[in-house]
Automatic annotation (TrEMBL):
<keyword id="KW-0472">Membrane</keyword>
<feature type="transmembrane region" description="Helical">
    <location>
        <begin position="75"/>
        <end position="95"/>
    </location>
</feature>
<keyword id="KW-1133">Transmembrane helix</keyword>
<dbReference type="InterPro" id="IPR046659">
    <property type="entry name" value="DUF6768"/>
</dbReference>
<protein>
    <submittedName>
        <fullName>Uncharacterized protein</fullName>
    </submittedName>
</protein>
<feature type="transmembrane region" description="Helical">
    <location>
        <begin position="42"/>
        <end position="63"/>
    </location>
</feature>
<keyword id="KW-0812">Transmembrane</keyword>
<dbReference type="Pfam" id="PF20556">
    <property type="entry name" value="DUF6768"/>
</dbReference>
Length: 126
């Protein structure tokens, strides 16, 4: 794949390279904060709040399990804590999948930009 990228890089002008560099992949935190913008932002905020609440209540349930004097009560708190931590994992997985989908869309847009630049260069040289 790097040879292909090198061939594309050689075919581009300095202006094209600068344009592509301005559309480079953002860092992890920028990608994570990007989940909270756009048309799906309200869903991400809802999932993030549900994630935080389920984690905090799960920690409380775990604490109650550890401090329970009755074995049946400890099992009930433990099952609740396990369920809440699974919800936390599900929320994080959902957000991670959305972040990966955003990365793929960004890469597709970069490829489209590269193709349009190459097509424009080929049209200008004719």
């Amino acid at each position: 794949m790097s040879k292909f990228d090198d061939l594309i890089g050689q075919a581009l002008t300095e202006e094209d390279r600068a344009l592509l560099a301005s559309h480079a992949e953002p860092g992890y935190l920028s990608q994570a904060m990007g989940l909270f913008r756009g048309p799906m932002s309200w869903v991400m905020w809802l999932v993030n709040v549900a994630n935080g609440v389920s984690f905090l209540v799960g920690v409380y349930a775990l604490w109650q399990m550890v401090n329970a004097t009755d074995a049946l009560l400890a099992v009930k708190w433990g099952i609740g804590a396990l369920f809440l931590f699974q919800i936390t994992t599900l929320c994080k997985t959902f957000m991670g999948n959305r972040m990966e989908a955003n990365r793929m869309l960004r890469e597709i847009k970069r490829v489209e930009l590269q193709l349009s630049l190459l097509r424009a260069d080929a049209g200008a040289s004719e």
